């Protein structure tokens, strides 16, 4: 009976690792494809790049059976709506854009993540960066509230929540669980979504 229990646990761990390996492979392909298709044009269209990248990551998370697939899908939908002219989300973004861009580009909130990622121990640095996701998001929301308005802060929180949830799911499933197995998927930089604004 103990052997069966150990075998079942081993199968579950192996399955989780196989899912992580699948997502690692697919996410690396997503980033390369989105970049090469964008670079094929004379000018990289950030919206087109983001839409392709996040759609591909959502599909990869589904194909690989990742637990964060709903979060990945929500980010892909958010990017699609932000980038599609005339959608309610796009119109609202355009109302807040000037102040949001200024507040986000001047923020010092990323410093803890940057400091974590330049550490020599790459495994620990990824783990530390993952622990900072909520703090960075909250810091940025406060910066937006100070620089803009309460309405702009509410909008910022609405569009950034899916990205935060995706990164937390990514960290839980790929960084914390697979830290010693050196699984490193090409997840977009934290709040890469904000490159849409520039």
From TrEMBL:
Keywords from the UniProt entry: Signal
Signal peptide bounds: 1-18
Highest rank taxon of the organism: Eukaryota
Protein name: Uncharacterized protein
């Amino acid at each position: 009976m103990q052997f069966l229990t150990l075998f079942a646990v081993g199968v579950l761990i192996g399955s989780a690792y196989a899912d992580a390996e699948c997502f690692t492979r697919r996410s690396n392909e997503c980033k390369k494809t989105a970049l090469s298709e964008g670079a094929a044009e004379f000018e990289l269209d950030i919206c087109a790049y983001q839409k392709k990248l996040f759609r591909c990551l959502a599909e990869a998370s589904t194909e690989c059976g990742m637990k964060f697939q709903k979060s990945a899908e929500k980010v892909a939908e958010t990017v699609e709506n932000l980038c599609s002219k005339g959608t309610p989300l796009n119109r609202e973004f355009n109302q807040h854009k000037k102040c949001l861009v200024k507040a986000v580009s001047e923020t010092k909130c990323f410093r803890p993540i940057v400091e974590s990622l330049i550490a020599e121990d790459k495994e620990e640095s990824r783990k530390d960066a993952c622990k900072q996701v909520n703090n960075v998001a909250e810091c940025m929301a406060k910066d937006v509230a100070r620089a803009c308005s309460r309405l702009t802060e509410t909008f910022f929180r609405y569009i950034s929540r899916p990205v935060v949830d995706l990164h937390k799911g990514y960290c839980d499933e790929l960084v914390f669980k697979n830290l010693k197995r050196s699984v490193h998927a090409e997840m977009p930089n934290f709040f890469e979504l904000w490159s849409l604004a520039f």
